[in-house]
């Protein structure tokens, strides 16, 4: 399985916000901290907002905030919301063109592996990711002062 750049960036945005609870960050400051495209990050933040992970506001005092506490944001939920396609193989999709699907055990094996992968991600929250390395992450990703 491959996590898309979109999902990777979404997790990075959430990590940055979790490091600064209650502080509004701008897309530009997060993009600068990670050295990634502001334009692409704008799309990611829009999807995070639609999925209910962040709240955004415009204007002089605008920015991005977590919509809930880091301990209430599961990594599995983020991956499910941000990944456009979790089908590991063609036969996951209805109307698959694979001729051996009715007699193949790979589909079940991949379904079980995906379920285990997501179950493991469901055990981890944003707080779990940030807490152990908080000091180091803040030092590395220090956003510019407003």
UniProtKB/TrEMBL annotation:
Signal peptide start and end residues: none
Keywords: DNA-binding
Coiled coil: none
Superkingdom of origin: Bacteria
Listed Pfam families: Rrf2
InterPro entries linked: Tscrpt_reg_Rrf2, WH-like_DNA-bd_sf, WH_DNA-bd_sf
Record protein name field: AsnC family transcriptional regulator
Organism: Alloalcanivorax profundimaris
